[in-house]
What we know:
The chain is mostly helical.
Amino acid sequence: MANGNHQARLPNTSNISFTGTRFRAALILLDQHGICCSAGSACRTGSLEGSHVLRAMKLSDERARSNVRFSFGRFNTEADVDKALEIVPKVSCEIAHRFARGASQFGTNARLASGRNEAALPV
C-alpha cells in the first residue's frame, strides 16, 4: 500500500507498506532481484520505531513500522524504474502467497529472523 499524497510528493521517492513483519521479507526478496530500497524513513534508518512522519500522516503504528522506501537519483535510468515497477508487485504477491501458507515458507533466512530492518542494496 502506497503511503503519502499521490499528487503532492517528491517525484524520486516512494514509500510503501507491507503489513506486519512482511517488510523484512520484502527487503530480502527485493535484494534478491537487485532492487535497492531500505526500511523506514531516511531520518530514522536503522530504527525499529515507526516513522514519526508516517504517524503524523495518521498511519497506524503497524503501518508506520512496516514500510519500504525507494529513492531514485540522477544515476538511475528509466530501465531501473521499469524494473522496480515490474518486480515490486511480484514480490508483494509472493509475500502474500508465502504468508498465506505460513511464514515458515521463508525458511530460516537469518536476516529475516534477526529483526534487522535495514539493507544496503545496490541497484
